[in-house]
Amino acid sequence: MPRHDLPACPNPDLRLVRAPNPSAMTERGTNTWIVGRGAVAVIDPGPADEAHLAAILAALGPSERVSHILVTHAHADHSALAPALAQATGAPVLAFGTARDGMTGAMADLAADAAGGEGLDLAFRPDIRLSDGETVQGAGWSLTAIHTPGHLGNHLCFRWGMLGFSGDHVMAWSTSLVSPPEGNMGDYRQSLARLADLPWTALLPGHGAPVTDPAARLAELAAHRSRREREILAALQAAPATPARLVKTIYTDLPARLHGAAERNVFAHLLDLAHRNMVESDAAPSPAAEFRLVPSKRP
Fold first, then answer.
1. Which residues of the chain have pLDDT under 50?
2. What are the backbone dihedrals phi and psi of residue 158, each rounded to the nearest 5 degrees, phi first?
3. What is the pLDDT of residues 123-142, one digit of tens each?
């Protein structure tokens, strides 16, 4: 049965089927995790791809069936196959909510004027909505939902004993894209801190290899965001700037093909800083607006 480069499998009742959608944003593809034996849970079915659907079903033994389909968040590379898998297996789809659920008031206001990041699965509708702390149980397994907004307002991580399924919130190979209005940098950093307060042996992400030292990786991601914030504030001390100009100043070694994603992250930082009254914009906040330090925050 497919495991696709899963090193030192942390639990014998865990299988990995990787979707064939490699890219600069998905690493080698979306990780679809199968939990349990017999009546199993599938976490993040992945993109709408018939070959991947067939691979998931082929990973099951002759007497096995899918009893639950869990989705960490409504980006199409994680959720779009859920309806087809549900139709093929009869299993319900469980998630926090739709692609727009979990969005804060300020971001909901911004959503009227900003398209946000690519890849939202606006058609996604779970059969069952999961609340923070709610536990889903199956044959010999138990998964607890942890609401971790930031990358997306409806993002969930799932706790399985000392293992965690971290979706796009914590990955070993890359930082997470936080793209307003669906992404919220303040929420993202709070969710990192919440995960850091829990004991983990490993985190199993939606892309890339397992995070084998979760405490160190969570601290590293938090430090990265703090460092990026300091870089933005330092650049704005020199002159007001748009997110695009800040990317050229700060991301000096980043390939041009990734500048768009970097702009979204910088914009997310600027919105968080504006919420904390540290920066302001010359017009309504948008990716094209020019931002400056609030006068009282200037040195």
1. 1-5, 8, 116
2. -125, 130
3. 999 999 999 999 999 989 99
Cβ burial 245-261 (10 Å sphere, 16+ → b, else e): bbbbbbbeeeeeeeeeb
What's the pLDDT at 296?
A: 75
What does the pLDDT read at residue 116? 47
Residue of 155, 194, 198 lying closest to 176 (CA atoms): 155
Q: Which of 228, 284, 275, 220 is nearest to 251 (CA)?
A: 228
Do 198 and 158 meet the contact criterion of CB atoms below 8 Å apart? no
- Listed as own residue / partner, the contacts of 244-248 with beta carbons closer than 8 Å and 24 or more positions apart are 244/287
CB 158 within 8 Å of CB 70: yes
So what's the pLDDT on residue 243? Answer: 96
Q: What's the one-letter identity of residue 191?
A: S
**282: amino acid identity, one letter:** D
pTM attached to this predicted model: 0.92
Q: Is residue 90 left, alpha or beta, with left meaning phi > 0 and alpha meaning psi from -120 to 50? A: left
Contact (CB, 8 A) for 155 and 190: no
Query: Which value, in Å, is the radius of gyration of the alpha carbons in the chain?
Result: 20
234's CB contacts (< 8 A; 6+ apart) are: none
The structure tokens listed for 22 are 């490699």
Contact 136, 143 (CB under 8 A): yes
> Cβ of 48: how many Cβ atoms within 10 Å?
16
Give me the pLDDT at residue 142, please. Answer: 97
Sheet holding 128-129, edge to edge: 14-18, 31-35, 39-43, 65-70, 93-95, 128-129
Tokens of 177: 């894209």
What pLDDT does residue 298 have? Answer: 58
Whole-angstrom CA distances from 59 to 4, 54, 209, 254 are 11, 9, 19, 38
